[in-house]
Structure formats: C-alpha cells, structure tokens
Design brief:
single chain; 294 residues; alpha+beta; Double-stranded beta-helix; seven-stranded mixed sheet; three-stranded antiparallel sheet; 8 helices
C-alpha cells in the first residue's frame, strides 16, 4: 500500500493531514521522506495512526528529517531523567513509573504545555519538527490543539502587518512558566536566559510568512513591557480563533508530527490520576530566526 496523505478535516484542506500506507518501524525510502516533507509543507500537522513504535524506532524515523535536539528544556535532568536525552518526557510519570503528585515540581512545570507555544522557541535555534508518540493515554482529555500561524498572518489587517513585520521578541521559559506562578532557582534563571526571535518569520521552502508566537515570548524590543505583552496577547487571541485551530484526539500508538515554524500548539487538561505517557523527538531548525532577512 502506497503512502497517502489526506486532510484530517475536508472542511480545512490545508491544515492537518492523516498519513496512511506506511509503517514507521521500517526504514523509509527517499521517496517516502520527500512525501512526508512535502506533506508537512502543505498541512503543517500530520497524524500517523496505529504506529506502535519503540524509542529506538521513533529516533530512527525522526532522524530522516534532520539533527535531533537534546531535551535540555525539560526540568528534570541528570540521573533523575526517565528517558534518554534525545527524548522529551511529555508525561506525568517519575523515573520509577509512578504518577507524580499534584504538587510535584516536574508536574507543575509541565502544566506550561497547556499554554499556546512553539517548541524550543526559548532556544537560539528553535525547533523545526516535533514528533509526539502516544505510549499510554488517559480515557478522556489530553488532546493536542494546533493553531495555523500562516493563516494567522494572512488574516491580519495590512496596517498591523506593517507595524509588527520587523519586531524582535525575547523568548524564555521564565516567561511561560512565570505566568503560572512557577518558582525558579538561580540555576534555572541562568539556564533559560532569554533569546531573541523574530515575531514574523518566512518558511525556508514555501516562502510563506507566519507569526512566530509562543507563551515563551515575554518582551518586544522597543516597546514597554506592558504594551508588548498586551500586543502579544492580542495576537495569540487572533491566531487561536476556532477556524484556525485543529484538535487531535489521541488514540493509543498515534504519532503526530508538526512544524513549529508554522504552528503553535497546546495540550488540554487530562485526569491527573491517570497515566499519560507521550514521548517527543524534536528536529532542529536550519538557523536562528535572527539570521532571516528583516
């Protein structure tokens, strides 16, 4: 059976696709890699149903699309980690496989995933693709929502586009988790010192412009902080209107892949007493957004 990509919702033919006719446990052909890349350029989000892969198989599949990030953005590091450094631990489990307590620091940090964000925008070179594999899921909740940031840019009025076109923001996990009242150590503040990102970026393949927003964005150079945060809030509200949002309702062994250069995403609430074990590999972008011509 040949690889096929179809819209997840026929009413939204350009955002969110479903991939069939492929087994991610097997090596990919060059034609398959090219088809998935082209699908990502078109749909920005691709779902691969019924892919019961291992960590090694997820890593092998992911490497077809570029160098892998290390999971340095996770709050848990060193010997306390449950997974290897190429995998972000998007779960409510500790190293022993126990569900974390409601006041567990790692669980509280993970609540930031419920805010609209783009993965690794707090790194100087942010993420290209993210690939999230569902190993165990709760019986309700825990969906992932995606916002189309290409459409968000296209539907801004020309005056706003002109105003924000060359803005530069500072991004940091200090901003995103600070909104939730998370307490940081001095080491955290050094580790997550803000980095600069352009507010509007151009896709290197399609040439399309998109808004580069994230809960990690906390300032805009040249604007007072209250004005900058008010503008960022307004832009997020614009970007996440219903007609620009695709929701993926997880099934066991789904793998979902998205382009952080053209989307934002967030997790929805899930029962805290049920296991949600998701494992994310992340592909580095080609360069910093600051290297893009203004």
């Amino acid at each position: 059976m040949a690889l096929t990509i179809a819209p997840a919702d026929p009413a939204r033919p350009n955002f969110g696709g479903i991939v069939t006719g492929i087994d991610l446990r097997l090596p990919l052909t060059q034609a398959e890699v090219a088809a998935i890349d082209a699908g990502m350029d078109h749909y920005a989000v691709l779902a691969f149903p019924n892919q019961p892969i291992s960590d090694d198989e997820q890593l092998a599949f992911s490497r077809n699309f570029g160098p892998l990030e290390q999971a340095t953005g996770d709050i848990v590091q060193g010997a306390a980690r449950r997974l290897r450094m190429e995998l972000n631990d998007i779960s409510n489990l500790d190293r022993e496989g126990r569900i974390r307590a409601l006041d567990d620091r790692a669980r509280l940090f993970g609540l930031g995933n419920r805010l609209w964000h783009s993965d690794s925008s707090f790194k100087a070179i942010p993420a290209k693709y993210s690939l999230l594999s569902a190993r165990k899921i709760p019986d309700r909740g825990g969906d992932t929502q995606f916002a189309d940031m290409r459409a968000a840019w296209d539907t801004l009025d020309p005056a706003t586009q002109s105003e924000i076109r060359n803005y530069v923001c500072d991004h940091s996990q200090l901003y995103s988790r600070g909104v939730l009242g998370f307490d940081f150590t001095d080491e955290d503040r050094i580790r997550w010192a803000p980095v600069q990102q352009r507010l509007v970026r151009r896709h290197p393949v399609t040439g399309r412009l998109s808004l580069f927003l994230s809960s990690h964005a906390g300032t805009i150079h040249g604007l007072p902080i209250p004005e900058a945060r008010s503008l960022l809030r307004d832009l997020v509200e614009h970007a996440t209107q219903r007609e620009r949002v695709h929701t993926h309702k997880w099934r066991l062994h789904d793998l979902v892949m998205w382009d952080n250069r053209t989307t934002m995403h967030r997790a929805t609430n899930a029962p805290p007493d049920q296991v949600r074990d998701m494992r994310r590999t992340t592909i580095e972008s080609e360069s910093s957004t600051m290297q893009q011509v203004a």
